[in-house]
Specification:
Low-confidence stretches: none
Number of helices: 1
Number of strands: 17
Strand order of the largest sheet: 3-4-5-6
Shape: globular
Largest sheet: 4 strands, antiparallel
Mean pLDDT: 87
Helix content: under 10%
Strand content: 35-45%
Radius of gyration: 18 Å
Distance between the termini: 30 Å
């Protein structure tokens, strides 16, 4: 995420048509001190978006109700400090109804209280329907890049790991697909007279995901 993304905020679209009311840092939201949406996800349905401030030490957690007009600023709820410890993106799981951070913490959005913590970090994706959460190793530390570890989503304990060899660059996003699939992408940036960014997508399917 970046400060530019936080300033731009969120606009809801129906196909290619934007709903008129957007939520951004400089729009009117009387219940929010400074709307810094560094990361945001849909909730259980299309009536709510959850966001987190990972741009400043305010560590706000936001609840943004969504209407047919868009996101009314007056209805946004700001829980200052509730996103403390959330680095990277947040993710919402429709089965557990919790939200998850890339660096391990888990909270209940209805109370914003901690539920648990995975003792790991890296880009992740939860899937409560199969009782697992998956983390791709970060670009630092002793775990090789390209390692994906599955965790028990209810007990926050590791289950198994798999290694993609020869992954180049840093992992950016990890997603679930189908009934037994995972995919992640990695980018590698070379700086010189020009800046060149390259990368690959890595795809996995099989019993590791089930």
């Amino acid at each position: 995420s970046s400060d530019r993304e936080a300033i731009q905020g969120i606009t809801v679209y129906d196909d290619a048509v934007a709903r008129p009311t957007s939520a951004g840092r400089y729009t009117s939201h009387p219940n929010v001190g400074d709307l810094l949406l560094g990361t945001a996800v849909w909730g259980k349905d299309t009536s709510v978006i959850y966001g987190a401030n990972n741009e400043s030490t305010g560590f706000d957690f936001y609840v943004l109700p969504v209407t047919s007009a868009g996101i009314p600023g007056a209805t946004i709820v700001d829980y200052a400090g509730a996103a403390s410890g959330f680095g990277g993106r947040i993710h919402f799981d429709n089965t557990t109804c919790y939200f998850y951070g890339d660096n391990g913490p888990v909270r209940d959005p209805s109370t914003v209280k901690p539920v648990g913590t995975f003792s790991t970090s890296g880009v992740m994706v939860p899937d409560g329907s199969i009782g697992k959460a998956f983390f791709a190793a970060p670009t630092y530390g002793s775990t090789p890049i390209g390692t994906i570890t599955s965790y028990d989503i209810n007990h926050f304990t590791p289950i198994n790991s798999i290694l993609f060899p020869n992954v180049v660059g840093s992992t950016q996003r990890l997603i679930r697909w189908g009934t037994n699939g995972l995919a992640f992408n990695a980018t590698n940036t070379t700086y010189g007279t020009t800046t060149t960014t390259t990368g690959k997508i890595y795809i996995l399917s099989g019993s590791f995901v089930q």
